[in-house]
Amino acid sequence: MDKQELIAGVKIYFNENIPFNKHMGIDVIDLGMDAVRIGINMRPELVGNAIMNILHGGVTATLLDVSGGLAAIVHTIDKLDSFDGNLLFEKLKTLGTIDMRVDYLLPGKGTHFEATAKVVRHGRKVCVTRMELHNERGEQIALGTATYIVG
Amino acid sequence: MDKQELIAGVKIYFNENIPFNKHMGIDVIDLGMDAVRIGINMRPELVGNAIMNILHGGVTATLLDVSGGLAAIVHTIDKLDSFDGNLLFEKLKTLGTIDMRVDYLLPGKGTHFEATAKVVRHGRKVCVTRMELHNERGEQIALGTATYIVG
Amino acid sequence: MDKQELIAGVKIYFNENIPFNKHMGIDVIDLGMDAVRIGINMRPELVGNAIMNILHGGVTATLLDVSGGLAAIVHTIDKLDSFDGNLLFEKLKTLGTIDMRVDYLLPGKGTHFEATAKVVRHGRKVCVTRMELHNERGEQIALGTATYIVG
Amino acid sequence: MDKQELIAGVKIYFNENIPFNKHMGIDVIDLGMDAVRIGINMRPELVGNAIMNILHGGVTATLLDVSGGLAAIVHTIDKLDSFDGNLLFEKLKTLGTIDMRVDYLLPGKGTHFEATAKVVRHGRKVCVTRMELHNERGEQIALGTATYIVG
What we know:
Oligomer: homotetramer
Number of domains of chain A: 1
Radius of gyration of chain A: 15 Å
Structural class of chain A: alpha+beta
Strand order of the largest sheet of chain A: 1-2-6-7-8-5
Order of helices and strands of chain A: HHEEEEHHEEEE
């Protein structure tokens, strides 16, 4: 397998084999080295405030964490010396979120939301990412910063 | 209405009228001044890692945010001069999460999880809370800190 | 006074009248609406690790907090309806850091460091800023996110 | 050397050999397994707001980071298989702050401040600590959470 095939496999895995991502309706759109992009359509069960029809803060946090984790994975794959699936599997087994900060900027109003994540630094042990959540009108709903253990 | 009736109303509201809380299966157990406690039973759709059967990090973040927000509400009610529902409603309309930090301490293994939240400081404008998530064996899965706008 | 005069006054105040800023040797370089920029020259007393000659993490945190606070002030001035000093003084008395996150990306090696801060969102009550610290070679030493109470 | 001698050495090192700690006037009081405690006396150059005579937020952040780092070191020493200085030195060279959150709860008024830090979790790679800053009247000025790379 080459790098692009591994990344394509990660995309399928996150869309098909992570139960909570399916339960939420998260769609992995793009896994680029520059940025990772995932989306979700508003549905009644994602609402936190039924009167105002606003996305639940837990959905926002989930989207930021998923997108940041994917950005860390893409950069981890890019740094692999050889692209065999077993090595990646070993790496991914130990990859995990250390901590995350979420800043809620605007009420989550909208019909479609997309989270983008960029790697700020990918060291030997820790990967730091920044994430943003926007609605379909381009309004920034939230901001995130997270660290992942990668080595 | 007195304070206890208002708090009882908040409990019902969070269990019945917040769509995402129902979608997740969150149960508000206790709304004390000392601590707020909510619970969730593990279900297949809450899993983030199907091989390891581990709670998704987004579920963890959601439980911490919900419990912290409830602790902020309980203390906001406690500080009300008069306990009429309209005044509370006005207060709660403007109450929102400013930001939250989640520290992931252990993989979320277990059959039942409970988040507890305490208010560290409730000022005129901002309320700061600390939250913890434990599984049914008492292992601490995560730690949270959040700020809420309350005035 | 107009807006530019108020901002010029803030620059003088932060350089001359904040004891710890002088103790540290912080220099407010530019107070723009787009970004705030402050600098510090490495000196022996700012070192945290004498063998490696690395900036103390507390200096990094200080620079990020000072730059973020200045960005919040500049945007608060910009939103004032009238530019009289008393109104500003009242505003600034209540402006304070709610919380801050610092991400340490690289060891703080260098001879000169600059922190830049941008406002991500300036709401009626809370201002959210992102900050970066670079050395004289343009390497990013740290990343910050902070919230300030502004109303 | 045994564990207690190593810890005694760390105390001397932090009090005598870290330039910025001396510049600030930080005093390492106690390095216990349960909690680490450091103190600082208010001095004019530590002030952030000269009118209100309040501790600069950067001093608060510094005290929290120093105390949290010491707590991580004490627990790292406790987990060493053999207590030889070289092994410790290798460990400490790679120990560093990943990120820190500071919550500012009350204006830093007082004549003496103490920061206490506890380890929440010490894993193979990452150590998570919680810190508190109190003044001489026992009022809690600030709260901190930090992660340190330890392996």
